[in-house]
Amino acid sequence: MLTISSSVTLADWEIDLTQIRAQGNGGQNVNKVASAVHLRFDVQRSTLPSFYKERLMQLSDQRISKDGIIIIKAQSHRTLELNKEDALARLKALILDAVKVQKARRATRPSKGAKRRRVDSKTRKGKIKAMRGKVQD
Question: Transmembrane region positions (predicted)?
């Protein structure tokens, strides 16, 4: 069972974990050991609240298909257990990021002092650059 928040949990039957062989370089075990994990999670069939489902489906993440299936591949660790934990942690982070409410942006203007300091620094820099020219006899 994966706990997303105090009121939202995912049962084991909702998350499909399969073992696969990791890609990339390896040693003697590379062609024998299936230590990578393929996690599949169907958003539509899950027991998540409807608010969570809507926010997840609105995400433009390449890990979420058009059908609402989240696919996460974890292969950064050498052991299967660590890769499972990594995949579940990434699923939890994805769900929590989707439901995080963004703070409304308010338009602001720079203060008079900030404008004055900016113009003063520009004129100071211009004077320094003007002195870099050739010296007249």
Answer: none
